[in-house]
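Hi P.,

Sorry for the delay on this. The queue was packed all week, but I finally got your sequence through. Input first:
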Amino acid sequence: MEKEPSLFLSLLHTDLYGQVFVFPKKSADAHVILNMNSSGPLQTFTVCLRYFTDLTRPYSLFSYATRARDNEILLFKEKPGELRLYVGGEQVTFKVPEGTGTSTGWVHVCASWESATGIAELWVNGSPLPRKGLKKGYSVSNQGVIVLGQEQDSFGGGFDAKQSFTGEIADVYMWDPATPTAVMQAANDDSQLPTSIVGWGNLHYQIKGYVVLKPMLA
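Then the structure:
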């Protein structure tokens, strides 16, 4: 099955090293669409990104929806100290220590899940949190759309401004089947990252609404 033409035909293809997506204000339409380069359903995945925000209300960091399920994969900050991971519509909640960001205020987060055990991991700024479990034996469909900046309540839409992201997002990656441990090890060793199905250095994206691509501030 091919990707939805109206969503994917006009995607740009760019190396965004040193760049960030800036979401300047609360909105019900500002978002970025990403294309995932996967040939089949996912039995495992790891999603990593960096974000910079002063929000205290709920907001979405990474939303992947299909026509059958809006929260196929969702990384959602419900409130300070709490980050939720959804897989196949089911969720687990991780308690995230606040005030653990970098000196610049950026937070690096990696979330992973595997079908064989149902185990989900969340790493924040290189440190793992206690593991959770959900959707053991499930397969994540590859017939979906990734959205940054909004939480999808329907395929490619159903946005709510009260859940929109305001701030900056960068270095978005998604792997199948690399684990956060492998990703962190590669980053610490300054070695080659595993081949990704979404990669900041080779990103297929489309900006919708008031989102601005800018150089990262030092």
